[in-house]
Design brief:
4-stranded antiparallel sheet, 10 helices, Alpha-Beta Plaits, metal ion binding, 400 residues, 2 domains, Peptidase_M20, 8-stranded mixed sheet
Length: 400
């Protein structure tokens, strides 16, 4: 029996687990029930576990043979603070919380792979099954690493995978180099001097100063950055004043910056600070500028990305393994790729036609209240995980 056919036979049971997780979503660092479900299944299949890294993380350890080589396979577990619009039977039971990004499905695919790997152990070395908390803004990967993930569980490479709506089910995408952008926040408070709106000469109006700063930020992209580089600067909130006839004392702005390289990010942060402070000074105002880097760019190493591409091509055919178009979204798997060689790939989630009746009217896209993971991906995703592990740890050395 082919590997994928074998995994199809167990997919119904894993799909039930996935739907249970979907119905009981937990936000970052709160994945206690989810971690219990994962740990329970791994223990049931005879897989030793370690709990508590990153607060609620779970690591399963599957060993075979005598080799010291090891590979890590990672799935994220947390949900989003979204109120679900779906009303099918497995819709969220917790108002304001939802698996709107498919982490329930990622967990299910890795569980299906874990069950097969524990039963067959067709490899020489160790597979570390990494069930990570707090991807959605909490930096759970960073916290697991800080608390000893790679020190306690040394591995030669690590792989991650995310479902991608709009890409056909049965397709993968993986490429070397940057695949997701860095995630960064900025805060600018323009501090002027309030007064009567009919007497602007008596105050320092922070609102036009803020508008000038917003416009000037965009010149960083068009005049200070190489046209061959890519970046985004988005001012997403502006708050000032309380009424129509009063010039406010200050104007606050926040937003995000996305880049595919640290060098471009360094330049943008420096220029934004200079622009904000100098424009304020030119108008006799002052400025409080803060910049927070929360996720670095996700950059696949060449050998591991090409290895994953070859393995996926053997499963679905090379024509169904697409070049991975880099996205300006961010992903905390980036921290793992800073520490270890590896690759982050996409698996097609389809167009949404897989959803049960009583789904929401919105599209089946990531972070949408009508989203649901495609359970048909479970055996395919699990097959990919199993083949990556078995070929990476084949006798005689690593496939990359």
């Amino acid at each position: 029996m082919k590997l994928i056919d074998s995994l199809v036979t167990q997919a119904a049971g894993i799909a039930a687990v996935r739907r249970d997780l979907h119905a009981h979503p937990e936000l970052c660092f709160e994945e206690v029930r989810t971690a219990d479900v994962v740990a329970g299944k791994l223990t049931e299949w005879g897989i030793p576990i370690h709990r508590g890294l990153g607060t609620t993380g779970v690591v399963g350890i599957v060993k075979n043979g005598t080799s010291n080589r090891a590979v890590g396979l990672r799935a994220d577990m947390d949900a989003l603070p979204v109120t679900e619009l779906n009303t099918f039977a497995h819709a969220s039971k917790h108002h304001g919380k939802m698996h709107a990004c498919g982490h329930d499905g990622h967990t299910a695919m890795l569980l299906a792979a874990a069950q097969h790997l524990a039963k067959h152990r067709n490899f020489d070395g160790t597979v570390y099954l990494i069930f990570q908390p707090a991807e959605e803004g909490g930096g759970g990967a960073r916290e697991m690493i800080k608390e000893g993930l790679f020190a306690q569980f040394p591995m030669d490479a690590v792989f991650g995978m995310h479902n991608w709506p709009g890409m056909k089910a049965g397709q993968f995408a993986v490429s070397p180099g940057p695949v997701m952008a860095s995630g960064n926040k900025f805060y600018v408070n323009v501090i002027g001097k309030g007064g009567h709106a009919a007497l602007p000469q008596t105050g320092i109006d922070p609102v036009p100063i803020a508008c000038e700063i917003v416009q000037a930020f965009q010149t960083i992209l068009t005049r200070k950055m190489k046209p061959t580089d890519s970046a985004v600067i988005s001012v997403t909130t502006i708050h000032a004043g309380e009424t129509n006839n009063v010039i406010p004392d200050n104007c606050e702005m926040t937003g995000t910056v996305r880049t595919f390289s640290i060098e471009v990010l360094d330049m943008i942060e420096s220029r934004m600070r200079q622009i904000a402070e100098h424009i304020c000074a030119a108008h006799d105002a002052t400025c409080d500028f803060r910049f927070e880097r929360y996720y670095p760019p996700t950059i696949n190493t060449e050998a591991e990305a090409n290895f994953a591409r070859r393995v996926m091509g053997e499963i679905v055919g090379p024509e169904n393994v697409l070049r991975q178009e880099a996205a300006m979204t961010s992903e905390d798997f980036a921290f793992m790729l800073q520490a270890k060689p590896g690759a982050y790939a996409f698996i097609g989630n389809g167009d949404g036609s897989h959803r049960d009746v009583h789904h929401g009217e919105g599209p089946c896209t990531l972070h949408n209240a009508s989203y649901d993971f495609n359970d048909d991906l479970i055996p395919l995703g699990a097959t990919c995980w199993v083949q990556l592990a078995e070929q990476f740890l084949k006798p005689g050395g690593a496939a990359p």
